[in-house]
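seq as requested:
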Amino acid sequence: MNSFKDAFISYGRADSKDFATKLHQRLVEADLKIWFDQNDIPLGVDFQNQIDDGIDKSDNFLFIIAPHSINSIYCGKEIDLALRRNKRIIPLLHVEQITQEIWQQRNPRGEASHWEEYKAKGSHSSFPNMHPAIGKINWVYFREGIDDFEKSFAGLLELFSRHQEYVRQHTYFLAKAIEWEQKQQKSQYLLVGEERIQAEDWLKIRFQHEQPPCEPTDLHCALICQSIKNANNLMTQVFLSYSEKERPFMEKIAKILMRESFTVWTNKTDIQSGSDFVESIYRGIEEADNLVFLMSAASLQSEYCQMELSHAFSLKKRVIPLSIEQVDLEQIPVELRTLHFIDFTEQQPQGKNSANIDQLINILFQDTAYYEQHKILLVKALKWERQKRNSSILLRSHNLRNAEAWLKVAKQKTQHLPIPLQVEFITESLKQPPEAALDVFISYSRADSDFARKLNDTLQIQNKTTWFDQESIASGSDFEQEIYRGIESANNFLFIISPDSISSPYCKAEVEYAMNLHKRIVTVLYREMSIADIHSGLAKVQWIDFCKHGADFLTKFGELTRTLDADPDYVRSHTRLFLKAKEWGDRKRDDSFLLRGKDLVASEEWLKQSVDKQPAPTTLQLEYLAASRALPYRKIKLRTVLLSSLVVTTVMFIARFLGFTEPLELAAYDQMMSLRPDEPKDERFLMVDVDPESLEKLNESGRYPGGKGSIPDAALDDLLKNLSQHQPSMIGLDFIRDFPAEDSLKQRLQQTKNFISVCKNSYENNRGEKILGFKHAPEVLLEQVGFSDLVDDDAKGGRFVRRQYLMQKPDPKYCNTPEALSLVIARRYLQAKGQPFTSPLNPETKAYDQPMQFGKTVIPQLLGLGGGYQDMDNQLQGYQTMLKYRTFGRDPNNFAPRVNILAVLDNKVSAEQIRNRIVLIGFTDRQNRQADYWSTPYGDVAGVTLHGQTISQILSATLDNRSLIWWWPLGYETIWMFGWALVGAIVCWRFNRNLYTGIAVGFSTGNLYTICSVILVAQSGWIPFIPAFLALMFAGASVLYLTNRLRKS
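struct tokens:
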């Protein structure tokens, strides 16, 4: 809490600067931390944000009343924020009004009439324009020359000390709530453990015989109730059923209930994005103690409301109807008619003191323990049924006895009885024999019970049998002995690291006992702490960090289950060997109990794995295996394995350098690129398609007579006119116009300075034929021209685009510009945004001797010294980089908003879709001679879309920090190939059986592919897969060959 302040001073400088400075100094001398704008607004920051933050993190809001502060819009904003935050506001009366003389001093040129106008507005006095909230609060009087400053100051200090701890907690939990809200209400920013319990206790504080110093805000209540909900596996106390018409009423009820610390489920706050709507509603009802139904004509006719009621009644839930308007009794379902309604027809919910709200809260507090247990058992029973009666979810020990006792009570009730599934679930649990072996023993501090309970429940859902003290220790049992038996019977010892568990002597004893038994210890970090304080046995274990900033529970839980599931055969073999060794020792080490044949081979393999694994073998196990061991398999030496890896790496380096691996590597690259997730559309663009339907309608309408160009000049003129009137950032035309324009189009092309045209370079095809280029529109200046050439990966004419040209050697006759259309548009757009452009082209040497750069963003150049390409046949000429496609709906064509040309000509495109956007116009009609379609990893894409993708890539990288495709230098890639060659060689050297070798090689290949895919998808890094894969395979094959020769010899 060191970052918080005791008070925030709000004042008007003209009247109260000296007084505010004095007050601040005196408060600081009284050992108070005060936010004062003269000291607490750093240079170069948004002062309003700094002020808002100061108010949020201050316990008290001191408002110095004076005419200037009363009439200041800035002080008004501060008061409004303090009111929204429910801060304790303390008004200090300093100046009641100013005289004409004072006004004249501040306005030397002011005239008497101006003073009269000033007074007429009430600006001379503190009272006419006073904020209503300030007027309602008792003031502390600090009028100069009238009030005793020292006496008033003493009263102010006494006011600060009153309910100081409550007010400080208000500030602390408000800051937590604001942070949670700013972080999109992510669960990792909720309150947990002791902090959550403190927040619950604070929210329940009531001031019986005095007014509270400040009230919790709705945000406080939302944070605390959501934290409670999170601690209880998102289970709630109240499900609100309503129709959309009653949404305002529902929101009032929800806020009132949360103020009373009830957790509430609504379809507006508790349905996760992407979840099935109906299934989420059913789960919400199942996981709630009560269903509160807002009964109205609309809700009685709502299909969803009736579905919710039906589900709640089928589960024997307690349903509480709130009658919020008069309805026909015949409309009310039969089940509801027998229930008591709480009447809200003549009174809206006004807070906790209204009679109808009190009635609702009293009902919710009745038999809370019964309904909570009803809910918990129902949820477990439903999980058991939905998971095909997963036996790991069945009740055991303490939980089972509680459920059995609850069932006896429940059968005596007349309402809200257990459903048959609950009875069957408890009955089936009673039939299960006590399990001798368990998967996981959970060791934790009670301070972390919420997290431990959540882990336990989730592990059971994953078919893990767990030992959890709240479920596994029967009442009256020897606590310590039960714990030790639990550790002995568990395959894994799971320890939850937190300051409380590390300092607990009970947890320390459990850890030491598990270590003595050589149990596999798995640790999870729940709360941050110094590693120096951790038990030495735990410090050696890599923990799974559940408290890391941004850590998602399910993501980290997946890592935990992978750890628990790692080497299940190894753990089972450990137990099996221990039992056999114990039996051998008990029988005076009789040779007849030693391992032989396949059993020995399997045990030897297990022992080899145990070198770097936990749990380690015990001394007894090692002695048992030594007695059983036969002659080991002969193997080649490790230096031969290393040499084989080096030879294979050298061969692969040569093959890659000669380009033999390039086709396969590009195919693998395409497949990995297709795994990339969708991204939001780039709203900086508007794509205007010249599509077949639009062309056909234009021809049929006869609006534009046929012209010389690809579309009539008159149509293009109207198109540019309609676009220009809405002020686009730039207009790019992606089709050739190498002939003079007619009529008004000529003047429009000359005057449209944000219009970008294209030209095309001459080139030589794969048959050696010279293909002439195309010139740009003669009316357009050369600086408004970029070349439209796209780089093609298929020498046979397959037109496959993975790269993009940014610069190339100009064609003086046809296309005398070094810059691509994408570069011209991106450069002009980014320069307008204040991002300077650094050209890689040296004007003297005509070479690209430095990286291309926009602001601080470097555009990497393909040189053939890394990545999948080799500079064969001059394929990397010019300045090229990789193209990272943006997709939406798995389609790169949808990377930006699109309209057709007819919509623009008919003025059906709104100004907002055009203003300040980059507009690209191009053909998407495959039949048109100007249309160009290219193959990509995602399918065929029109040329204009490819240009848009390339521009979007540069803009997103520069302005949005979207990563570009990068690759390692050749040296790193060579080390990478050697590393995987070594993996393949060691795998084939390490395993003796072909089955195990095949599995290990497959696993290594999968890991290689996963690493390459994850780096490409998540980090945009192109790490070579095919060279490393071939190195792995050939190195492994060479080791197998040499090993086979050795064994035969």
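The chain has a mean pLDDT of 87.
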